[in-house]
């Protein structure tokens, strides 16, 4: 089966090949990927402003991150920035929204999912929440400790459990960069009976199960979801949405000059 992606469907921005697709097209592509076993696992990332800034500061990690199989623009400023390219992105495709749409579709089609995330001891609570929000969804969980490292013993155990469960979709909810490093390790090591789709989605599970509240839809549409999150968790997120935001402007103007010189 031919997958719905190639270089013609991407926009080159911030040294990343970002999928130039609507949310509906992204969902269709990801579900098609999830149904197709026998190929190498595909790593999916969804960069926002914080990610772009951190990648700019970590050249080695950025090089690895750029090898992701599918990259979607999570942050609205990334979509706005794409207007300086020849092929602007049509809309944002967030990890939080993909988590919801893929879980619903997986439940309807009988596909199974595996989640790496949450806190130790939450397994029963999270499984009950999944059963309530997504009735009929086949889901397994591995809740690692805060000491989780992508190359450590807990990662070994997570991979073992994924291997046993044989899910169609793995949601990795560990935050950047742990989730990406774990996904790339899995893709590197698992060549048979592998999960087709590895989704690096941060706090998406918490939003999907109602543990955290997302911004109202109107705020999401005008690119103000960051303000909602900052107001909700100021101590944890103030640096991400202030200092990182300022740094993003510098990165954007550098990208603008580069894009202009290539025309």
Automatic annotation (TrEMBL):
It comes from the Bacteria. The keyword Calcium does not apply. InterPro entries: WecG_TagA_CpsF. Keywords: Glycosyltransferase, Transferase. CDD domains: Glyco_transf_WecG_TagA (cd06533). This is WecB/TagA/CpsF family glycosyltransferase.
């Amino acid at each position: 089966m031919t997958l719905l992606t190639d270089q013609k469907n991407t926009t080159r921005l911030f040294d990343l090949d970002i999928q130039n697709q609507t949310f509906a097209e992204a969902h269709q592509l990801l579900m098609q990927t999830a149904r197709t076993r026998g190929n190498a696992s595909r790593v999916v990332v969804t960069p926002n402003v914080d990610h772009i800034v951190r990648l700019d500061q970590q050249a080695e990690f950025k090089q690895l991150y750029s090898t992701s199989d599918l990259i979607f623009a999570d942050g609205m400023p990334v979509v706005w920035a794409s207007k300086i390219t020849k092929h602007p992105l049509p809309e944002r495709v967030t990890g939080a929204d993909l988590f919801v749409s893929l879980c619903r579709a997986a439940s309807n089609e009988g596909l199974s999912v595996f989640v790496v995330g949450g806190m130790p001891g939450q397994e029963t609570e999270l499984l009950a929440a999944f059963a309530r929000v997504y009735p009929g969804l086949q889901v397994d969980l591995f809740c690692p400790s805060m000491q989780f490292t992508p190359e450590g013993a807990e990662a070994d155990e997570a991979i073992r459990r994924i291997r046993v469960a044989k899910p169609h979709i793995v949601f990795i909810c560990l935050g950047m960069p742990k989730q990406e490093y774990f996904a790339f390790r899995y893709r590197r090591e698992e060549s048979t009976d592998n999960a087709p789709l590895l989704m690096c989605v941060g706090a998406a599970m918490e939003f999907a199960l109602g543990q955290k509240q997302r911004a109202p839809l109107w705020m999401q549409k005008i690119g103000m979801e960051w303000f909602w999150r900052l107001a909700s968790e100021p101590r944890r997120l103030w640096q991400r949405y202030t200092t990182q935001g300022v740094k993003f402007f510098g990165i954007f103007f550098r990208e603008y000059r580069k894009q202009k010189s290539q025309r």
